[in-house]
Design a protein that fits this description.
Largest sheet: 5 strands, mixed
Bound molecules: glutathione
Number of domains: 3
Strand order of the largest sheet: 4-3-1-2-5
Shape: globular
Strand content: 15-25%
Radius of gyration: 22 Å
Distance between the termini: 41 Å
Structural class: alpha+beta
Helix content: 40-55%
Order of helices and strands: EHEHEEHHHHHHHEEEHEEEHEHEEEEE
């Protein structure tokens, strides 16, 4: 794990939260250094003297110290749900504009509404009104786009903004929850808070000190060893379709990679149980053997609710990474 990137982070910081969400989304593992903002580690300040979190330090020493850049760094490696809208310049521009409004105007009003005493001459009501205008506008967008800020599902804009909207709600839960103009935004925020990823996002770690223990993030995941094969049960139909287009993009029975965000895999001894639970009545099923050295997207083993780890592929499975295809169960 020595050449994993290092992420300096602070659990409740909304900028660090959006960066960590992108790490989760892309199937990556980083070395996690939790920071106390009052006592920032000299090693972090040496890499990024401006002293804000998150800070990502890559294996070659390159430093990425703006949260949106950390998100793009992660999603360049894998973006299975297309949060960055890779093929659509118009939506990329919309994402950029939403993030700019959040990081400039909305954050300005949020800080002055939440911590009015810290800003000499600030008027709480003025900043509340201005912040709410922005929130109403986002809520209307969400109503018009089927529950997300952009057409077509969750995007980088949703991930980048939700930690700040969460802060607004924490500052004024009653106002936020009773505002008729915020219904769409409330359900949108709740969908993040209810998402299984949210608990992982908010995992706790003791502040890091030089030489001290360093967990990785996400803490409940491990790297997938590349010296043993991985397995995937596929409906025969889905595999035949994959052969026609050279890649397989089904996550699990009836769900696509785009819907789930990764392809479910198993280690050898997990296959029989996976079959029993999900495929026993599925008709013709194939067992694919996957060579982990031949995939092009991140692999990460994540814990399911029972605590058992399963390998996951955070991108499409290239047909050439599949070294054998046999009917399952085989005679
Ligand atoms: N533009 C930066 C802003 C990051 C930022 O301001 N983070 C806050 C924590 S939420 C911080 O580190 N503040 C420094 C401090 O409080 O000393 C980014 O997007 O990464």
């Amino acid at each position: 794990m020595t050449d994993l990137p290092i992420l300096y982070s602070f659990r409740r910081c909304p900028y660090a939260m959006r960066a960590r969400w992108a790490v989760l989304e892309a199937g990556l593992l980083v070395r996690w250094r939790e920071v106390e903002l009052k006592a920032k580690p000299p090693a972090m300040l040496e890499k990024s003297p401006k002293g804000t979190v998150p800070v990502l330090v890559l294996a070659d020493g390159t430093t990425v110290d703006e949260s949106v850049d950390v998100m793009h760094w992660a999603l360049r490696q894998a973006d299975p749900r297309d949060l960055t809208r890779q093929q659509c310049l118009k939506q990329q521009a919309e994402i950029h504009e939403l993030v700019t409004i959040n990081d400039a105007a909305f954050k300005h009003h949020l800080d002055r509404f939440k911590y009015t005493d810290r800003y000499r001459g600030a008027c709480k009501e003025h900043h509340q009104k201005a912040g709410l205008e922005i929130l109403h506008c986002w809520s209307q967008r969400i109503d018009g786009h089927g529950g997300w800020l952009l057409e077509g599902g969750c995007s980088l804009a949703d991930v980048a903004l939700f930690p700040f909207v969460r802060q607004w709600r924490i500052a004024d839960p009653h106002g936020f929850d009773s505002d008729q103009g915020l219904q769409g935004l409330r359900s949108w925020l709740q969908s993040f808070l209810d998402h299984p990823g949210f608990e992982r996002l908010m995992q706790r770690a003791d502040p890091w000190a030089h030489g001290g223990h360093q967990p990785h993030f996400p803490a409940d995941a491990i790297a997938v060893p590349t010296d043993q094969p991985l397995f995937h049960l596929a409906l025969a139909e889905d595999w035949k379709q994959a052969v026609r287009c050279s890649q397989y993009s089904v996550s699990t029975r009836g769900l696509s990679l785009h819907q789930v965000g990764f392809i479910h895999l198993s280690w050898r001894d997990q296959v029989p149980d996976t079959f029993r639970r999900f495929y026993a009545d599925a008709g013709e099923v194939f067992l694919l053997t996957v060579d982990p050295t031949r995939v092009h997207s991140p692999l990460r083993a994540d814990a399911v609710p029972s605590g058992e780890l399963f390998p996951h592929l955070y991108g499409a499975l290239p047909v050439e990474a599949v070294t054998s295809v046999i009917p399952y169960p085989s005679d």
